[in-house]
Structures are given as structure tokens and as C-alpha cells.
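REQUEST FORM: STRUCTURE PREDICTION
Request ID: SP-0412
Submitted by: Lab K.M.
Chain count: 1
Length (residues): 293
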Amino acid sequence: MSQVLEVLIGGVLAGTMYSLVAIGFVLIFKASGVFNYAQGAMLLFSALFLVTMLGKGLPFIVALPVTIAVIVVGAIVIERVVLRPLSSSSAMTLFMATLGLSYVVEGLAQGLMGTQTHALDLGIDDIPIFVGDILISQFDLYAAGIAIFLVTLLALFFNKTRLGISLRAVADDTGAAQSLGINLNFIWRVTWAVSTVAGLVAGMAWGARQGVSFSLSLVILKALPVLIIGGFTSIGGAIIAGILVGATEALAGTYIGPFLGGGIESWFAYVLALVFLLFRPAGLFGETAIERV
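STATUS: Completed
RESULT:
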């Protein structure tokens, strides 16, 4: 039983890392209906810019706000130059635009900061902590704490601030929000800026775990099953789905993987997502589209 609990807890904590990546997708999709494939590239750019600033001798307390300022300005430029002219286009056109944007951002990161792998030290040692017979990773505990803190901040932002309520209004009914005088372009700029900062948090967590390299942009592949299961419009759903994916992935890898030759962790989450697509396409907390005919 202690082994089962250890595997389960490790999977739950690892799942919060997936949730951190998924939150950035949810923010943009909720406000604009755009599936931002470039989120992984933006995550990579922000983490790479941070480690570059640290490598130039800037202290972390200075490098972090500088990085936030740069990526927020970049997000605003992307929204203004790339997405606003396409705002009346189809969802597929917008998706293809973000797909192309991901290659542009990755190429820009490579040209400005090189292709070397960088270590990112956040001052959190990945040492084991024993609770009875159960081993828990200290780093995973901190990552889970960061995810909970970020979700709490976003929940307060969306429910207690005028700007957050405006964002929710745009997400619920764009036309009605505009009729009330809400500036749609401003809302989208804010959404992209907040999403980019969420990507930086995810990039810091993943970069500290596996190093900051161009493979970091591929963590979006771990976020896709989380989005499908939790729903594309629910921040809370991203957290719960991330925990579900992490837990089931860890249990399946430990207890089913040996019978299938191993390697089950790389694809089990997609099987789980496929089951949800078959029986609950909107996900656990997604909004089912209802159209009057």
C-alpha cells in the first residue's frame, strides 16, 4: 500500500506541472476562442530569456521583472500585429497563424540566445522527503504549491477585479460585452499578456526540472490531454485534469507498463483523452456548445 501511495502522490504532484502549461492555453481560448499553438514557443522564449539574463550576471530579483516586461511587450505586439488583423477569420485560420507564429518565436529565440542547453537554478533542491515509508520529491511539492498559488491568483483576478469580470464577460458573450462598452482589443491584449506570464511560470518549473533547451517547447504535448479532459475553458478543470493525468499515468506506468514492454507513460494520457472525446467531448468542466437551428 505504501508503494501505491508513493506512486500516486508522485503522479499527482507531477500532474500539477502539466496543469501549469495548460493554464496558458485556457486563458487565451477562454477569452478569444483561439487555440494558441505558439504557447509552447512563448514558454520556451520566456524561460530562455530569463536564464540568459541570469547568465549575464543579473540577480534573480532583477532578471525576473525584466523578463516579465519583455514577454508582456512581446505578447502585446503579437496580438496587435498578427492576431487582430485576423480577428474576423475562421478558427482554423487563427490556429494556422499561431502555428506559424510558434516557428517564428522559436527562430527568434535561437537567433538571439543560441541553442545551448541552460541549467536553471531556482534554489529548490530536488531532494527526497520521507513521510513514513512514502518518498516525496521536494521539488514536486514546490511545483504543486506554485500551481495552487497561480490558480488562486487567477481566481481572485477573474472574480474580484473589474478587469477580470470584463474578461469573463467577453468569454461568455463577445457581442454583449462590446455592447456594454468593453474594449475587446484591450481585453485580448491583457489576456495574451497574462497567458505569457503564466507560460513563464511553467517554463521556470519545467526548465528547473529538465534544463532550458529547445525541447522545452514540446511540453505542450503533455498539456493537450489535460485540455481535452479538463475542458478548454476551465482553469480549475486544467488543474484537476492535470492531477488526473499525472496520477493515472504514474499508476499505469508502474503497474501496467511492465506487461506492455514499458514506455506507456508517453501515450497513456492520449488514450485517456480519447476516451473523454468519445463520451464527453467538452471535458469535465468545458462548456458544451449549444446552437439554435
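NOTES: The longest strand covers residues 128-131.
Reviewed by: T.R.
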